[in-house]
Specification:
Strand order of the largest sheet: 1-2-3-6-7
Bound molecules: nickel (II) ion
Structural class: alpha+beta
Largest sheet: 5 strands, antiparallel
Radius of gyration: 16 Å
Strand content: 25-35%
Number of strands: 7
Shape: globular
Order of helices and strands: HHEEEEEEEHHH
């Protein structure tokens, strides 16, 4: 396994729509190695997720994991490591909450993004098994953020009020307490 370079906003690959992965490709050493590298890269950067576009590969693959005490997102509920290949999501209702997000490809910026609170997530795992799951709350938001990357969309595009954009320092100083209170109430209500 090795860490890959995370590309940053402005790199054209972040604006590309990634393509589906075939069953044969998924079994290949190259794609299995890419998945291992994405997990290692995400963990090394304390991310909550990483999409293939962020390491300059345009395949529909993303990894998500929140370990307890993640320093970037301490308020998120833990998410076991989940590798999603060719994922598809569908909102289950109209409930939307504003989530304060950051992104490893958008250094030193956070902002508020409306996200669905209940989604159905369908994907293939790295072994080729198909899954269908319901994900709720902040976890649903995390998957929406990663799947957006596969369509060339950044959280910046979804910030509906630019006045919520902050540096990470300004977030800590002016927004963290208010947002963490809201985040805790979402986790209590939805369980994730
Ligand atoms: Ni991101």
């Amino acid at each position: 396994m090795s860490r890959r370079e995370i590309v940053e906003v402005g790199h054209p690959v972040l604006r590309e729509c990634a393509r589906e992965v075939s069953e044969e490709e998924l079994r290949s050493d190259e794609v299995q190695r890419l998945i291992d590298d994405m997990v290692e890269t995400m963990r090394a950067a304390d991310g909550a997720g990483l999409a293939a576009n962020q390491v300059a590969e345009t395949l529909r693959i993303a990894v998500v994991e929140v370990r307890p005490g993640n320093p970037r997102y301490p308020y998120k509920a833990p998410i076991p490591l989940t590798v999603v290949v060719n994922p598809v999501i569908e909102p289950l209702d109209d409930e939307v909450e504003r989530i304060n997000e950051g992104c490893l490809s958008v250094p030193n910026l956070r902002g508020e993004v409306p996200r669905h609170m209940s989604i159905r997530l369908r994907y293939t795992d790295r072994d080729g098994e198909e899954h269908e799951e319901v994900r709720r709350g902040l976890t649903a938001g995390t998957f929406q953020h990663e799947l957006d990357h596969l369509d060339g969309v950044l959280f910046l595009d979804r910030v509906d009020d630019p006045a919520t954009l902050t540096t990470w320092d300004a977030y800590e100083r002016f927004y963290r307490d208010t947002f963490e209170e809201r985040a805790r109430s979402i986790v209590e209500r939805t369980g994730s």
